[in-house]
Structures are given as C-alpha cells and as structure tokens.
Amino acid sequence: MASNHNVLAVILGGGAGTRLFPLTHHRSKPAVPLGGKYRLVDIPISNCINSDIIQIFVLTQYNSASLNRHVSRSYRFSRFSEGFVEILAAEQTPDRPDWFQGTADAVRQVMPHIYDWQIDTLLILSGDHLYRMDYRKFLARHFETGADVTVSVVPYGREAAEEFGLLKADEHGRITEFREKPKGEALEEMRVDTTAFGLSKEEAARRPFLASMGIYVFNYRKLEELLAQDHEWVDFGRQVIPAAIESYNVQAFLFDDYWEDIGTIKAFHAANIDMTAILPKFNLFNTEAPIYTRARYLPPSKVHNCEIVDSIISDGCILNRAKMVRSVVGLRGRVEPAAYLEEVIFMGADEYQSIEELREDHAAGKPPIGVGEGTVIRRAIIDKNARIGAGCRLMNEHNVEYADNPEAGYYIRDQIIIVPKNATVKDGTVV
Q1: Cα(167)–Cα(160) distance, rounded to whole angstroms?
Q2: What is the dihedral of CA 79, 80, 82, 87, to 10 degrees?
C-alpha cells in the first residue's frame, strides 16, 4: 500500500443543516454535540487518526466559528510531525466569487490548498456520519485494484435502499452503474449479488443493494481531470461519480458494520439514545479505536440520591434527587430534585453559574441553566445552556409532528421536542 504520507483527508462540513434545525441555528452540522461530550466531526477525525491519516482538512461555510474553535482546541499534533487538522472555510476570490455549490464544488474550490501538499491520494469524508472504519482497509482496496476512484458502500435491504444512491457492481467489484434514490422497477434493476463481497448467501439475499456512503478515495490526478471536465458538476453523487463510471476504473469497497447518516432530528435522537443500551450499535468503549475530542479539566460528576437507568452521564454534572431513563446528560449538566428525564438528550452547559449568578436569576424570576425541580421531560433534545423552569411537562402528549414556538422556547420535529441553545422555558410550561 502507498505511504499514508501521500494521503490527505477532506471532511465535508455539509450545507446549512436545515434538517437538523434548530441544533444548527448557531453552529455548523459537524459541530453538533454527540454522546454527551463529543461533536459529530470527532467521528471522521478519530477514524482518520486511528487509521494513521493525520493530514486533515475540514470544509465548512455555515456557522463555522464554534467548529473552528473546537478543532483548534482539540487536535494539536507534535511540532515534529506533519499532522494537522485545519478548517478551510469557503472563501470568495476574484476567480470564484461563489460559495460552495455542492460536495464536488467544495473540493474544487479548495484544490489550491490541497495541491500544496503534493499528495497522490485524496480521501473524501462526510462530517455527519456515525461509524467506525479503518480507512487503511478502504485505501488497500483502492490500491490493490488500481482504481481511479473507490466508493465505500453498505449492503441494504429494499426498504432502506430507497433512500440512498445505489451502485451496481460486477463480480470483481468494479462499479458499472449509479442511480440516485431509485424506486419501483428502477430499484429492482440495481440488485447485486453481494456474496461477491463476502456476504453469506442468507445475508446476500436479505441485503442485495449497494448504497453509497458518500465517502470516496480518489487518485488525485484523476480527480483533477474529472473536476476540470465540466465546471457545472457540483456534486459527487449526482454528477462526478456517474461520469467517472463511464471512463475510469471505479471500484466498490464494502463496509459491513454500523453506519448512520445523522441528517435528521429523528436519526440524531435515535443514534444518541442507542448509545445508552447495554450493547449499543456504536460503542464508545472501544480501546482499539477510541473517539477523540477536546480534553476538558472538569470535576467528576456529583450524583445525590438519584435513580439512573441505562443512561450516560458526562463530566462535571450535578444531579440531585432526579430520575433518568435511557438519557444522555452532557458536560456540566445540572438537574434539580424530582425531575424526570426519559429518552432525553440534555447537552449540558458551556460554563458553570456562580452562586451570585444563581441568586440574581432567582431574584429576577429566571430559571437557572439546567433542568428545574419537578420537571418531567420525555423524548426531547435540550441544547446547551438551556434554562428549563420548575414544574414543566415537556412530553408532547398530543404527538404533534412539527411545531415552531420560539417565544415559549421550544420546537418540535418528528414528534421530538427541541429546546434550542440558550433558550428559556418558563416555570410550569406544558408542551
């Protein structure tokens, strides 16, 4: 396999993240907190570090301040190493006055920065996927087959496959066709014998479709050729990959493990809550491939007379006579007596409030940061620095699918209540 010194990774920060609103109102999608103490971007960066790929660019253009702050504070390599993780924000130049128009256009616009590193292989990743992959195996497949492009795919059954771009490959793994979210007869035409990729006959019958993960390995010179062919090609999945299939060696790499696209509130909530399971699909307790993040020097969490069932409690929390069931409590999370949280992602706070600040809030009739006394919350996401008053019932008992009520301090998406960052929910509020 070629030396990893010739491999550079680019992590695509995604667009405005409208499907994750209001979590993306003040931050870019890769900066959204995950699993109590991490950010979404920590997943692909950690995969890279665990795969000995330490030259990494993160591309973003929306709300990039918090992402930039997180990356600069978290990932610092030795001064004797060539390793780096750097943000490349969209920049307007005399040649390119536009913002990134799509995944391929984003890479095209930052190519002058990539070119300086004299690489021969470019690994293109997404900043909002949850999975653990050793990219060395991905690269080995690319080099062994002499591929110009290698696309990572997951085997899916019919129902799940409808939501993804599907690839068709021959018995040697060379991709022969790509279709974006085909339905009906067009979907049936994309069936592949996945036993050629190592699945058993039973598994191959159950999962006969190859869904693109949206991550790629490119021979850098071939990528330059492709992107120069047509400047109207702005997206890898819709335009660049189908064009490459016609005249280049495009190979498939099968990834048969847990992978989740964290693109919606429902998927985000489900992925976080699953981490509280006894055997989660994505296991944070993996010593061979740890997930890295910013090191914080917080005190241990303090738990006073609480009942905690199948939950994750992060550093620096203060939990007082509360009950939590299948919930995630983030850094510096504070929960007051008789509160009840069930299937709640509570992201905690950026700072502790001082005694003086707590007194001022009390005098002003303002709830402190955290979850108030006697409050009941079910199936919700409470963003950072939120103030949930006492005696609230945030339960969506009427199963409302979608609602915007910023004045009352909440939104609803996919029946999940979301209290946005820095919002206040007054005492006694019922949702």
Answers
A1: 14
A2: -10
First-residue to last-residue Cα distance in the chain: 57
Q: Are strands 55-60 and 376-382 parallel, antiparallel or unpaired?
A: unpaired
Task: Return the structure tokens found at 161.
Answer: 């496959």
Minimal CA–CA distance to 67: which of 100, 96, 45? Answer: 45
Over residues 260-319, the pLDDT tens digits come to 999 899 999 999 999 999 999 999 999 999 999 999 999 999 999 999 999 999 999 999
pLDDT tens, residue by residue, 196-244:
888 999 999 999 999 999 999 999 999 999 999 988 888 898 899 999 9
Counting every residue written for the chain, the total comes to 431
CATH number for the domain that contains residue 365: 2.160.10.10
The arithmetic mean of pLDDT across residues 321-348, rounded, is 98
Please give the Cα distance from 123 to 10 (Å, whole number).
6
Range of the domain at 77: 4-274
Q: Choose between 278 and 61: higher pLDDT.
A: 278
Do 230 and 322 sit in the same domain of this protein?
no
Average pLDDT over every residue of 334-342: 98
- 31 burial (CB, 10 Å; 0-12 / 13-18 / 19+) is buried
**CB within 8 A of 49, min separation 6: which ones?**
292
Tell if the pTM clears 0.70, that is, is over it.
yes
Residue 397 included in any domain? yes
Residue 430 included in any domain? no
Looking at the structure of the chain, the number of domains it has is 2
Contact yes or no for 68/97 (Cβ under 8 A): no
Q: What is the 3-state secondary structure (H, E, C) of the chain?
A: CCCHHHEEEEEECCCCCHHHCCCCCCCCHHHCEECCCEECCHHHHHHHHHCCCCEEEEEECCCCHHHHHHHHHHCCCCCCCCCEEEEEECCCCCCCCCCCCCHHHHHHHHHHHHHCCCCCEEEEEECCEEECCCHHHHHHHHHHCCCCEEEEEEEECHHHHCCCEEEEECCCCEEEEEEECCCHHHHHCCCCCHHHHCCCHHHHHHCCEEEEEEEEEEEHHHHHHHHHHCCCCCCHHHHHHHHHHHHCCEEEEECCCCEEECCCHHHHHHHHHHCCCCCCCCCCCCCCCCCCCCCCCCCCCEEECCEEECCEECCCCEEECCEEECCEECCCCEECCCCEEEEEEECCCCCCCCHHHHHHHHHCCCCCCEECCCCEEEEEEECCCCEECCCCEECCCCCCCEEEECCCCEEEECCEEEECCCCEECCCCEC
